[in-house]
Amino acid sequence: KEKSASNGAVAKSAARNVKTDYTRWRLKDDRGCQTWHYLETDKEMEAWPQSLADKFHLGMDLGLPDLPPPKTPLQAATNGLSYFSHLQLPPGNWACDYGGPMFLLPGLVITWYVTETPIPESHATEIKNYLFARQHPEDGGWGLHIEGESTVFGTAMNYTTMRLLGADPDDPRLVKARATLWKLGGALNGPHWAKFWLSVLGVLDYDVVNPVPPELWLLPDWVPIAPWRWWIHMRQVFLPMSYVYSRRWSYPLNHLTRQLRSELLVQPFETINFDSHRNTISPTDNYHPKTWILRLLFWLLINVWFPFIRPASLKKRAEDHVWWLIEAEDENTDFANLGPVNGPMNTLCAYIHSGPDSVAFREHIKSLPEFLWVNKEGMLMNGTNGVQTWDTAFTINAVAAAGFCDNPTWRPMLVKALEFLEDQQMDEECRDLKACYRQQRKGAWGFSTKKQGYTVSDCTSEGLKSVLMLQKQHNGFPELVSDRRCKDAIDVVLTMQNPSGGCASYEPTRGSVLLEHLNAAEVFGNIMIEYDYPECTTAVITALHMFQKYFPEYRADEIKAFKGRAVEYIRRAQRPDGSWYGSWGICFTYAGMFAMESLACGGETYANSARVRKGCQFFLDHQMEDGGWGETYRSCETSVYHQHARSQVVQTAWVVIALLEAEFPDPEPLRKALRMIMRRQQANGEWLQEAIEGVFNKSCMISYPNYKFIFPIKALGLFARRFGNEELL
Ligand code: LAN
């Protein structure tokens, strides 16, 4: 089946392997809505010069001068901030490459392809470049995320993406990818989401897709498995997926998709019994194997419910209701949508339901580029439409911790950041809040933008904290966010506590943990419901704590009770070895930092708490030779601390912050850690990218490139304020 690549093919693919002219890319930031533009003409280039931030994100030299070599922690923090301040964008926020997951671009490119949306040459070229750059050199495959080993999901989907964008199947890199895919059993061994997208494309048959019945949305709310109880990302993906599945919509077969059938499958398409492959999956992809209950449910749906019981009228009602919910999501997010999976899927639904000329479809096509990002390797898809509010709030927090807020040098930067946060606070509820199962949002901040409009417990808390830090803790900042709006934020936060005392991400937990038995996605863990997270809970505790200082009267009893229960949850969440498991950053070093902050808020420190001492000991036991800390993403997958071969600047900063929050008395281990952080700093103040920092759903990693600035600055600053700004180097 395989043709060996002739030299001709190599030459051909090398010729195709062009790069765009990187001096022509620009990042536009319109109130946080970030899009990359490729300027075609010199006139445009003149009118819109490339900024330092553009150059930084594109991996170009900024030409910034060397700074005076730092000797003290505050000098190092100043140099770091001086570099980082150049990356602030005009509306006041910071942006970054928010890549990591390798299953996002395929959904977007398949959607573009099947809706026959023209793809700009610049984009097609750089997406291919990115995927080539991220192909594993040993086997030519792709994983679930950039650091993960090759999987069917990653390899089948990104291979397909390459082909849709015009890559040559004889290109030796594609030949290699194919060989790996076949070794893993081909596309039939892919997880649910791969089978879904490839059926949409017309490369697989819908019989291979485990059922996604839209009628689940008609279940009364009291039913324990009703979708409104699921974690928001699952139900908002399930929603459009159920619509497309129910319509069994697929793209008409053409030459390319026929070719893809033979490239992705290890046996001829015509000979395959697709239904018998619904549950086949490669071990590389099977992080969360399906339960027998789920398999039984699927079997009953396929063999009993769909063919014999379900009336056509019910199918129609379900589809209509699902479409109503999709429209509501589109309107409530101004077509930004919750995330990078339901964004393209809702686009496809608009196309199927209302056609290529509909307003909805066209608005979607305009919004989708907000997920795209350009870095030195090419174009990728971000995990959200940006990290605007989150990184901006954290930056203010770090600058404040370092005691830099009163320094006039940083004033304009901080005022801009405050202006951004002011602009991004949500000021009205969404339409049909109850019927769409949405959480209260007036007064909230989200992770990315107000336009996306989803409340997140810790983003609201971090947003509020940074506003209070500037407006209340320091003089001379404009009062942009009124007291009323601060109270609105607290009103939202007060809706977010679980009976356990902990806080989840977007909403309080709505369903039983037993729902995890219905996790059909295979590649992720803990996706079906919200859980308590030490990270989110801490952000809430610290926000309430700070708020009470300035508004001691407002809902005082509720806040006190909330805080007490939340700190109690943090205590309970500590594991016997003294650590806390992190769900959004890698991993124990991340959660430990938050937990220590919570305990400090509850008055517990090294001097008076065995719990805190145990937490500190856990960290000390893992300090590396060079003074740093480093753990790999395996910690997240396995819930066991996995030491990295090399210490990591970001994780080291997290631990330093944790130990300082704990009031760990001995400065020596901290000095050692900070020396390591200072030695890694470049002469221009920058820190270089190291291993990936973030995670979701236990198995998928995601980049937080700004953390390498934010957390070292905070750690250096906090140390100096506690132990003095002594010379460390
Ligand atoms: C995020 C990013 C931010 C993150 C924090 C605020 C850090 C966290 O404390 C709460 C949860 C939240 C908001 C979060 C949830 C899940 C997201 C949106 C992501 C990890 C970014 C990408 C991920 C999303 C689910 C990716 C799409 C994948 C699916 C499985 C649908």
From TrEMBL:
Class of this enzyme: isomerase
GO cellular component, one term: lipid droplet
Segments forming domain Squalene cyclase C-terminal: 389-719
Source organism, top-level taxon: Eukaryota
Keywords: Isomerase, Lipid biosynthesis, Lipid metabolism, Repeat, Steroid biosynthesis
EC number(s) from the headed UniProt entry: 5.4.99.-
Biological processes annotated in GO: ergosterol biosynthetic process; triterpenoid biosynthetic process
Family under the similarity heading: Belongs to the terpene cyclase/mutase family.
Protein name according to UniProt: Terpene cyclase/mutase family member
Species name: Melanomma pulvis-pyrius CBS 109.77
